[in-house]
Amino acid sequence: MPASLVSTAELALTAALATWMAFGFTKRPGRWFRWKLFANATFTVVTLTGTKDGRTELVNPYAELSPGSLLLPPPVLQTIISHYVRTGRYDQIDGHGRVLSTQGEQRIEVRDSNVVL
Hints:
Elements: H1 3-24, E1 43-52, E2 55-59, H2 74-86, E3 92-101, E4 104-111, E5 114-116
Antiparallel strand pairs: 1-2, 1-3, 3-4, 4-5
């Protein structure tokens, strides 16, 4: 095979790969993480305050996740909050934040220890 044909094929393949990567990793309006690895991921960024015996303090739900885990969908957040209230760590938990998923960005609230989207 002639060297010019190989270099032309390599150049075309490299350009096609670079184009696919450039458009594959850009986000469409209202979408986060278009890449298929993140297709089913749901991230929750939330600030919570817990009340126990009239005292209020910040609650860290991420401490209940395995080390290095960032995924915290609303059902898991509700499970963690319910655990905190059921075990008596807090009487009530409230807060607000955002959920990032394939449906885009949504507001999330925690009222009276219940997650509300």
